[in-house]
Structures are given as structure tokens and as C-alpha cells.
Amino acid sequence: MTPTPTPTARPPRPVITPAATPTPAPPLQRPQRPERPDPLQRPQPLQPLQRPQSLDPLQRPQPLDPLQRPQPLDPLQRPQPLDPLQRPEPLDPLQRPQPLDPLQRP
């Protein structure tokens, strides 16, 4: 008859399999220095032939011909100020909204 284990006995340790071991973190990679640009890859200054040519006088925008300029409005076409009779009249005091009577306030 085997003796029963006492409550203070520790359970057996779990067996650690190789797959359960955490893989060591890879060593930190230092950021690589940017390589010096190859002298042949540097942007070359523009050659004289590649510069934009000055505009031909015929291609320059011409000032507007006087006949093509927008004409000032004819006085009859200008919006007229409102005639005093056409202006909206100020409200009659009787038509203005009255402040509430103190007895009528909710």
C-alpha cells in the first residue's frame, strides 16, 4: 500500500518541450547609414537648351483691344437707389411685437 501524498507535496514540474521555449529575440539591427549618392546620380544643372525659352512676342498675351474691354454700365442700366416711396416703411408701433405683460408671462 503506497502512502498518500500529503497536501503540502508539490505537483511535479511540467516538462518544458523545446517548442515551448521562447525564441531569443534577434539582435537589434543598427539602421544602415544612407549610402552616399553616386556622383553620376546627382541632378545635373539644366543645360541651356533645356531652359524654357522666352515667349515669342506673338505668344505673349496681348492687352485687350479697347473694343473688347467691358464697357462701363450705361447710367440707365445701373441699379437705381430705391425711390423713397418704394422703401419699406418702418413698422407701425402698434404692429411691433409687444413685450409680454407681466401677468401674461408663464
Which ranges are low-confidence, i.e. pLDDT below 50, for 5 or more consecutive residues? none
SS content category: little secondary structure
| Cα radius of gyration in angstroms | 48 Å
Give the DSSP E fraction (strand runs of 2 or more residues): under 5%
Q: Supply the number of helical segments.
A: 0
Please give the share of residues in helix.
Answer: under 10%
Task: Walk me through this protein's architecture.
This protein is largely without helices or strands. It is 0% helix and 0% strand. The N and C termini lie far apart (96 Å). The mean pLDDT is 63.
Keywords:
little secondary structure; single chain; 106 residues
Task: Write the SSE topology.
Layout: no helix or strand
Summary of the model, kept short:
The protein contains no helices and no strands. With 106 residues, it is low in regular secondary structure.
